Amino acid sequence: MVALVLTGCSGVERAPSSGSAEDEHQQAVSARAAAAVGPVEVVVETSQGEFVIAVHREWAPLGAERFLTLVETGYYYDARFHRVVPDFIVQWGLAGDPAFTAEWMNAYIPDDPVVASNTRGRIAFAFTDPGTRATQVYINLVDNVRLDSTGFAPFGEVISGMEVVDALYSGYGEDSGGGLRRGDQTRIVAQGNLHLDREYPLLDRLLRATRR
Fold first, then answer.
1. Nearest Cα to Cα of residue 28 among 62, 70, 72
2. Is the distance from CB of 210 to CB of 71 less than 8 angstroms?
3. Please, are residues 87 and 58 in contact by the beta-carbon 8 Å criterion?
4. 86-143: per-residue pLDDT in tens?
């Protein structure tokens, strides 16, 4: 079952080992997380309605910062919920514009230790191998605590609108955008929404994600 959440594209290489500059960056991110007061709320507008994510930077500082950066740059605007597996997860994070995906997909961040558990409603980055978190995230539709021991570190949780997450179209299952071990994302990466809208027109849309 762990393989079901692993995601990526064929030919993706492992991130290089951390150097001193990267270590300093990680320490700075962790320091900002420690100094932060309270969670950051992100409003996600979809074709099914709206849900709100509370980002807890103290849970996973590097993941939280990357997610907020992607939100603030508009990376997730007009994305598709390309992988919705009933009783498991909702996943997104390949941009509608393939040029935007290409810019970010190999911009890996190091792993955070798992502090919070993968319970229903919590959000974490998906990845294929250690050190390959980049843009794709998932929300747990059920308690997936078995994922905790394999390095999937939640950085936030849905605090309102979980019924919207539950309603996202799941009829395609793994076929529309599974991970490296369950499917091929090459055409999504190359063509973005052009491919998904043609082949999987019922997928729900992420209209915009904004920091409150």
1. 62
2. yes
3. no
4. 999 999 999 999 999 999 999 999 999 999 999 999 999 999 999 999 999 999 999 9
- Rounded to whole angstroms, what are the CA distances from 7 to 43, 60, 186? 24, 19, 12
- Give the CA radius of gyration of the chain: 16
5 vs 147: CA distance, rounded Å? 9
Residue position matching structure tokens 């179209």: 169
Residue 14 has pLDDT above 50, yes or no: no
Q: Decide if 58 contacts 36 (C-beta within 8 A).
A: yes
* Proportion of the chain above pLDDT 90, given as a percent: 78
- For residue 170, give both structure tokens: 């799941």
User: Residue 95 in contact with residue 104, Cβ under 8 Å?
Assistant: yes
